[in-house]
Amino acid sequence: MASLQLHLLPLSTGPCLPSSRFRRSLVRSSTERQALFNRIAPVYDNLNDLLSLGQHRIWKRMAVSWSGAKKGDSVLDLCCGSGDLAFLLSEKVGSSGKVIGLDFSKEQLSVASSRQKLMSNAFYMNIEWVEGDAIDLPFSDGHFDAITMGYGLRNVVDKHKAMQEMYRVSKAGSRVSILDFNKSTNPVIAFTQELMIDNVVVPVASGFGLAEDYKYLKSSIREFLTGKELEELALDVGFSNARYYEIGGSLMGNLVATR
User: Fold this and answer.
1) Which end of the chain has fewer CB atoms < 10 Å from its terminal CB, N or C?
2) Own/partner pairs for 90-95, CB < 8 Å, 24+ apart?
């Protein structure tokens, strides 16, 4: 069985839409969540590597590949955190392309910017870091050739609105690739996830003084959408087709939706 990935990437701070059939109740308030992501930023990458045994890097490459990003494209990494997917996208689009990494956590963006300055490849300079809200994107309609989102949608307050925004700012024919924990309908997989969170994630996080913060992970997965529900959500906002892939021993999942 694959190792459990830790990610708690940033989320939107906007309110839920009462009319959305995909609405989910809040686990924490928006301000508490924002404080959480700012607080974990300094140790975020080390914890991800430790808890996934490095497998998160494979899953992220898969997510970027599914996005269809290519040389010269203008692309968006939504809820970019410390920048892993943005850097991978940068390699895909090259120096003639443009990458926007958007997040609402100043501390995460600071880490991402610091990592960018340490990179030796010139094309990493095609990344711009933007502080912003996942449900109110500061971009024009049909702006991007591809969009990725890694471990962010699960934490967005209004998932329906976030998906609507991704649809709005993406070009016709482009793809959105969303990587996150898989909310499995298989009770064995669901039990395994919770068992690993309780017995691996939280104890390891406690070594960094973050045990209470990472106890939130289990409830966030419980309140997330299943693969089928994510497909329905994408189609509901207008995407022409949507396909959900279970990966990482079914502990993770990736939604691919085409505009």
Assistant:
1) N
2) 90/123, 90/124, 90/126, 90/127, 91/121, 91/123, 92/64, 93/69, 93/123, 93/126, 94/123, 94/126, 95/122, 95/123, 95/125, 95/126
Task: List the pLDDT tens digit at each of the 259 positions of the chain.
Answer: 343 433 433 333 333 332 333 333 333 455 555 555 555 555 555 566 656 666 788 999 999 999 999 999 999 999 999 899 999 999 999 999 999 999 988 888 999 999 899 887 777 999 999 999 999 999 999 999 999 999 999 989 899 999 999 999 999 999 999 999 999 999 999 998 888 888 888 887 787 777 776 777 888 888 999 999 999 999 999 999 999 999 988 989 999 999 9
d(CA 193, CA 181): 9
